[in-house]
């Protein structure tokens, strides 16, 4: 009696039944053709032993009367391995409320996920090998191991040397395509407007491009440059660490724009705009509140500043200042509010470091007065720490004083600011450079205004 016999069927009990082993060796079963007497149960295990069937023998055979089939032994099937899978940042153990770069506007369902360069943005959770089973001959039945997944890579992403991690090559927005492709966008293009369909935007990459407008009530913050083809509308807040280019108009009183570098735009109407470096206009400013740390240039289109209050640090070149209707217009040069605020902060830091250094010296002198106590082990350690702290604070103070001196030179240099108006300065304009002010009472043409001996000097021809 062999396995090959059992695979084909072994006749038993005077041909009333046949004993079979399944092709996969996972079952032994009896098919009966006539009713068997009860004695067969007492002797069937003998045949199983003869075939070396020793695993999974049932204590109570499972009888299928309708099919005339009786299961005698059943192997233990293997537990196949689970396929590996890819987890993407933020990972399950992360608390998104504690992570930098993840932003969610409650008006929309999606999140914006920004990542720094060299951030792990995805990882492979390896497949499992599974667990071997046993056939009825007590032989191992190997499992089918799980499959390894593969990263689909887009721009700005690389794979670690061991192939298990996807890492950002740039700083920007994590983008996961519908096919699972991973990208980190240092340049992000929004084809339409920033509105309720996009939610508010915070972007860490080098450049954000908005093909239409920043719509009413929206907020946009970029760590790089921002380009807006259309307008920046009412009740918006825009903060740009790099340059800002606006093809249209920045408008409305409740709109606030802050630019750390340069701003190019068509026009500004009523808005509150701060630019740390240069502001270059293609047309005009109307009744706005403007602060520019560097130069303001408006020599194209109308080239006009009409109404409102404008402060520039290093000077301005305009076509026209004020209006024919003599609307009050305030234009001040030689003042940089951002620079002044920084100077105040630096002054405060110098004062704090001075006080800190004074206290350290006082503590050191007290320790010296202890005499012998200062020679003890604890006293020596404290003295060493105080000396280290004194040197560190003194260096910090020296650096802060140097920075303060540089700021003071910059502020003093603003006295050299000039206001150049190639066309008309209309009546009822108040112009100023440094601490000098002058109320223009009648129209003047093609002039340069400078600070001289505490007053405004007006030159009829550019100097």
Describe the structure.
With 463 residues, the chain is of the alpha/beta class. The chain has 4 helices and 38 strands. The chain folds into 4 domains: 3-74; 80-127 and 144-185, no CATH class; 187-277, no CATH class; 338-415. 19% of the residues lie in helices and 40% in strands. The strands form 6 sheets. It has a 21-stranded mixed β-sheet that branches. Strand 2 (17-21) and strand 3 form a beta hairpin.
Report the portion of residues in β strands: 35-45%
Helix content: 10-25%
**Average pLDDT, all residues:** 90
Please indicate the count of domains. 4
- Please compute the radius of gyration using only Cα atoms: 41 Å
The largest pleated sheet is described as:
21 strands, mixed
Structural class of the helix and strand makeup?
alpha/beta
Count of β-strands:
38
Overall morphology: elongated
Ends: how far apart?
119 Å
Low-pLDDT sequence parts: none
In DSSP terms (H or I, runs of 4 or more residues), the helix count works out at: 4
């Amino acid at each position: 009696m062999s396995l090959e016999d059992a695979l084909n069927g072994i006749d038993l009990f005077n041909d009333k039944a046949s004993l079979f082993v399944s092709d996969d060796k996972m079952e032994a079963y009896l098919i009966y053709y006539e009713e068997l007497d009860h004695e067969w149960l007492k002797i069937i295990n003998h045949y199983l032993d003869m075939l070396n069937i020793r695993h999974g023998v049932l204590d109570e055979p499972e009888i299928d009367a309708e099919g005339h089939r009786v299961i005698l032994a059943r192997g233990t099937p293997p537990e196949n391995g689970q396929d590996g899978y890819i987890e993407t940042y933020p990972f399950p153990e992360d608390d998104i409320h504690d992570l930098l770069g993840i932003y969610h506007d409650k008006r929309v369902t999606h999140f914006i996920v920004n990542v720094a360069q060299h951030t792990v943005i995805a990882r492979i959770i390896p497949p499992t090998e599974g667990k071997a089973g046993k056939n009825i001959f007590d032989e191992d039945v190997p499992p089918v191991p799980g499959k390894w997944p593969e990263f689909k890579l887009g721009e700005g992403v690389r794979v670690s040397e061991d192939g298990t991690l996807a890492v950002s090559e740039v700083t920007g927005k994590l983008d996961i395509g519908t096919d699972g492709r991973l990208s980190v966008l240092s340049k992000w293009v929004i084809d339409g407007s920033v509105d309720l369909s996009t939610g508010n935007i915070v972007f860490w990459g080098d450049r954000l491009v908005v093909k239409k407008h920043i719509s009413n009530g929206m907020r946009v913050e970029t760590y790089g440059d921002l380009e807006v083809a259309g307008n920046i509308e009412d009740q918006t807040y825009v903060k740009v660490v790099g340059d800002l280019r606006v093809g249209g108009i920045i408008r409305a009183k409740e709109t606030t724009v802050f630019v750390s570098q340069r701003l190019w735009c068509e026009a500004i109407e009523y808005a509150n705009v701060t630019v740390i470096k240069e502001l270059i206009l293609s047309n005009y400013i109307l009744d706005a509140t403007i602060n520019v740390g560097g130069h303001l240039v408006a020599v194209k289109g109308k080239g006009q500043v009409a109404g409102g209050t404008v402060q520039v640090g290093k000077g301005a070149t305009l076509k026209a200042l004020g209006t024919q209707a003599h609307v009050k217009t305030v234009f001040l040069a030689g003042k940089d509010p951002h620079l002044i605020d920084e100077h105040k902060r630096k002054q405060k830091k110098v004062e704090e470091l001075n006080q800190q250094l004074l206290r350290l010296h006082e503590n050191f002198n007290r320790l010296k007065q202890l005499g012998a106590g200062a020679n003890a082990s604890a006293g020596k350690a404290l003295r060493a720490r105080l000396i280290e702290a004194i040197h560190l604070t003194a260096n910090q103070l020296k650096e802060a004083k140097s920075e303060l001196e540089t700021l003071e030179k910059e502020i003093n240099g603003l006295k050299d600011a000039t206001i150049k108006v190639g066309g008309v300065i209309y009546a009822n304009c108040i112009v100023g450079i440094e601490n000098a002010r002058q109320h223009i009472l009648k129209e003047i043409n093609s002039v340069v205004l400078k600070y001289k001996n505490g007053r405004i000097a007006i030159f009829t021809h550019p100097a």
